[in-house]
Amino acid sequence: MKIGIVCYPTFGGSGVVATELGKGLAKNGHQVHFITYTQPARLDFFNENIFYHEVNIASYPLFQYPPYESALAGKMVDVVKYEKLDVLHVHYAIPHATSAFLAKQILKCHGINIPVVTTLHGTDITIVGKDASLAPVVTFSINESDGVTTVSADLRKDTYEAFDIKKEIEVIPNFVDLERFKKQRKEHFKRIICPNDEKLLVHTSNFRRVKRIEDIIQIFAKLKKQIPSKLLLVGDGPERGPMEQLSRDLNLGEDVRFVGKLDAIEEVLSVADLFLMPSEKESFGLAALEAMACEVPVISSNTGGLPELNVQGVTGFLSNVGDVDDMVKNAIYILQDENLPTFKANALARAREFDITNIVPMYERYYEKVLRGES
Ligand code: GMT
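# GMT complex -> structure
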């Protein structure tokens, strides 16, 4: 198949899933055409089946807001027409599903029917999409897609509840490449971060409010009074500054390190003992899955799709959003030397269920269903 993939090319979850999916499809022999405004973060190598088409926006002094949606639709038309794509797969409803609708209508005038698959990732439904200015557009764009998928059953439920959706939504969970995300021998790295054999807690995210980084810092402040430990915060975003201040206010000193964005996140995860994800909302929790693949158990909130990934008392624990004390209690339990190896093994076993080789075929079958007009 010739597949067009449209996504945000950044480190964010939806962009990572879209890029890894494209790589998986290319490995299976499909020709994959990425259409984005810059080279996707995890697409930094040559592959004969992968093509990249950059969206360029015409600039003109009249434009206070550059017309990205129109430029994207124009690029989609160009790529579908000249590369003879079979299907367009857009990740994140806004504005990708809307631009895809426009492109589809334009292509219809040229006698081309391009099926559009939209994958909803989370904040496009649970936060941004609900905004009154966007909700009618999101509803329309989802209903006009030929196929719609969500990354968890919970997100499908949220989508049906928040919008008037007439389409059947298919759940295809997120996935992890176990060849890349696996525990590596990085003891030297661990010795640098934890010179006195402390336990290492890790969090990775885009540092937005929805991630509740303040809970992570509060959990750590309480935990470290009972278990010698260190906290590594990976990523960057609007909450980083205030959170650095909070850790100073709590006198956490050098026990907390903000390391910014990292490409080789699996190296850090390889030396971690516990991953923290106390999010307000999380449609799936891809970062937690990547941690589990590196044998790291997870302390998370019980919101959104997290219960579909993290198994209570097996791969970690889930608590109500904001219940810092419960999370501390559970973290102490996991970190006991007699419990930690079992949780680590269970985390890996669970991650294996979400191996990319199990999930990419689900997308392939779904494209075929859409092409047959059965979605
Ligand atoms: O976590 C974010 O805010 C980024 C966002 C995105 O769309 O880029 O992530 C969402 O999609 C990920 C990939 O499907 C999911 O694993 C995340 O759970 C989801 N984030 C939220 O629902 C907050």
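# post-check
Residues 12-14, 17, 92, 121-123, 126, 151, 174, 206, 208, 210, 281-286 surround GMT (CB under 6 Å).
The chain has a mean pLDDT of 95.
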